[in-house]
Design a protein that fits this description.
Length: 496
Amino acid sequence: MSTKTVKQKFKAFPFWTSQRFLTAIVTFWGFAVLYLQRVNLSIGIVCMIKHEPDLSNVTGDWNVTSDWNRQVGEFTWDKELQGLLLGSFFWGYLVLQVPGGMLSERYGPKRVVFYTMLPAAVLGLLSPVSARLNPYLFLVVRVLIGVGESALYPAAQALFARWSPPSERSRLVGVSLSGGQFGNALMFPIGGLLCSSVGWDSVFYVMGALGFVWCIVWYLLVFDSPQLSKRISTLEREYIQHHVSFRDGQKTQATPWKAIFTSLPFWAILMGHTCGNYGLYMLLTQIPTYMKEVLKFDLKSNGAFSMLPYLTMWLFIGIAGTLSDLLIVKKILPYAWVRKLMSAIGLFGPGVCMIGLSYMDCTQQIAAVALLCGCVGLSGVAFAGYMVNHGDIAPQFAGTLFGITNMAATVPGILAPYIVGAITIHKTREEWQIAFFIAAAIYVAGGLFYVVFAQTTVQKWAEIPKTLTVGNGVPSEPTEADSMIGRKSPLQEDSL
């Protein structure tokens, strides 16, 4: 069937009512649940801990009458223990980054996600009990929740390798991943309201229950591939199969581990991803605490204002993706320049905002919130930079590369809360200033390394063999997507 005939056949094919879009929407809510359970402790710990009034950050005639200093918590955990607890999720989150992708390729992403996210939801429901029994038991529970949720990102990569035609991949994957920022934004006001009105334990019960419900929906509505879907129309199945070269059981060449780890463009992505995540995870886990200790927001205002940075990031992800596609398609900038530009904005921009934020106190609440929005929002621009660069340099290993860099980029989630907790023992602005300076330096270091060493051309070790085989060694039927194997994209001809 000629390309012209195919285009005519699928010209009026619906997108918004399709099974692939439904798959993206369900995955969107999966990432929202992941972040709801990841961030719930960040807001919950504000009302779990017994606080005493600390006016050291109050200047001038500022009158603190909010209920922040009257909050009576249940636990007397010190700052270092709080930092350990806030970072414990990320210890477990390291575990299935790379294995999660491999397991999804072998057994299917549907089962891998269901059998990892469901126990995480149950453990979320058990969090209040474990916290009251022993803080270190609570720490173990948080680690295990991280393990359970660590497979979702690589599994989603495997899922959309089967479901997304290249021309729709940005929309489908973008819709899915944006669920994380939506969950972040949702958690802060809802968590603050639950915490102050019902009790801190309700934050864990509600989010655990949502996770349980989502797992059921996922199992009923999502399928590993169009071939296995019971809900997809014949026309949509043919449409996806025509544009997607991946087939169930199809083999690729062995993963070139040595070549990957000796590749400077790969290390550029890893450094950008890891350094960007340090500041992002620091803010993710510490924004409520910073707003309470330095800016003196009451609990309800804390939750409401804490959501704004993540709504900003959600918006910036969409703008950056659209703008980068426009710059590439219209050939306004070379391909590599676009990736580097978006990464530079997403790394240098937050670094500058961090420095400004370090000078804020409780008399400058609005300016501080604006800078927080700048830090987090500008980080979203990098979603059109290093966050999608894996597929540029190694299309057939994009899932594996993302698993590796995301695993490395999870380490800051462990370190940042502990480092901040160790620095801000006395809860003063000066201590927070040191924490912000460290984050700013890391942002800039990652940006410099990426801008210097990043590339967008397919690396030699990632070139796809001209002959693809399925599981029994029989050559697979070529598709439109297969016709691009071994060639540069026209958009890459101008890349650096």
